[in-house]
Amino acid sequence: MKVGLIGLGHMGVAMAGNLLKAGHEVTVYNRTPAKAAALAARGAKVAASVAEACRGDAVLTMLANDEAVESVVLGRDGVAASLRREALHVSSSTISVALSRRLAQEHTNKGQRYVAAPVFGRPEAAAAAELVVVAAGEHDAVAVARPLLSALGRKLFVVSDTPEAANLVKLSGNFLNASVIESLGEALALISKGGIDRQRYLEILASLFNVPAYNIYGALIASGRFEPAGFAAPLGQKDIRLLLTAADTLGVPMPVASLLRDRFLTLIAQGGERLDWSAIGGLAARDAGMAPS
User: Fold this and answer.
1) Residue 55 DSSP label
2) Of 30, 141, 190, 285, which residue is most buried, by most CB within 10 angstroms?
3) CA neighbor of 125 nearest in space, from 145, 157, 153
4) 174-229, pLDDT tens digit by residue?
5) CA-to-CA distance for 93 and 98, rounded, in angstroms?
6) What amino acid positions are annotated as catalytic residues?
């Protein structure tokens, strides 16, 4: 397929590389053109504008937040204004349910296809095409998107014909990951202050909870390796904020999510903007009067 990819952060660069590897004709766009150099060397075309990236069969956006997506997709000469009729927009950004609903309506009004397909996985998983992709959209749109999405990850779940459903699943999954980070941080602070070796403790956890979230985040918290950020703390804060907005709309109390919002606010207020979101797992040790790892 002829596909554009807009947004060349850690995730977008890796995703574009895997689309190239799968044989698609890829055009990339980023506000900072230098980020496209390595992809150009691998055969990607570099667009000078959003509109130029939207001239093919599909365009995939991987952007930081609602504001960026709204600007790129709904702005003047943006994705919605530039895609031809029946062309496809795949949004892999973690955005609000409300904005996903708005994007779906805008593309429908213009006779375009839209699939929400946020992904689970850190940059190293994206580079290895090991992401878990959660997609939602009309059947025909998902069918068109499937070859692209299959190139990005190890598993594709189609959850609904309503695109916003995929965004709700993504927010709920990030809530669970953040909950694991916070609980791991508290447990590690407890056993550390009790004189138990952290690495030995992680071996025990691996026998009880042998899943990526525990293995990855347990190691990061135990070592205190929060830089460079694979997923920056402000993005984690944003996701919990969007989750709470969705919960408020649906009338679902989420007291743990409210706690996580406060933990992210604490981390950022203490200068943690550049740290990985797993750094909230280090707050419990500070609260216990322990020196950072």
Assistant:
1) S
2) 141
3) 153
4) 999 999 999 999 999 999 999 999 999 999 999 999 999 999 999 999 999 999 99
5) 13
6) 170
pLDDT of residue 293: 59
Determine contact, residues 8/36, Cβ cutoff 8 Å.
Answer: yes
Q: What stretches in the chain show pLDDT beneath 50? A: none
Q: Which two tokens stand for residue 112?
A: 């375009």
Q: What does residue 153 show for φ and ψ, rounded to 5 degrees?
A: -150, 180
- In the three-class reduction of DSSP (H, G, I as helix; E, B as strand; rest coil), residue 137 is classed as coil
Contacts of 196 (CB under 8 A, 6+ apart): none
Assigned token pair, 20:
């190239």
Closest by Cα among 98, 101, 92 to 133: 92
**Largest Cα–Cα distance of the chain, in whole Å?**
64
Distant-in-sequence, close-in-space partners of 56: CB < 8 Å, separation ≥ 6: 1, 2, 3, 4, 25, 27, 87
C-alpha pair distances (Å), 126 with each of 20, 152, 184: 13, 7, 24
Of the CA atoms within 13 Å of residue 138, those in its CB half-sphere come to 14
How far CA 155 is from CA of 60, 122, 176, 212, in Å, comes to 18, 15, 19, 15
pTM over 0.85, yes/no: yes
Tokens at residue 185, please? 């941080």
Q: Looking at residue 278, what is its pLDDT?
A: 98
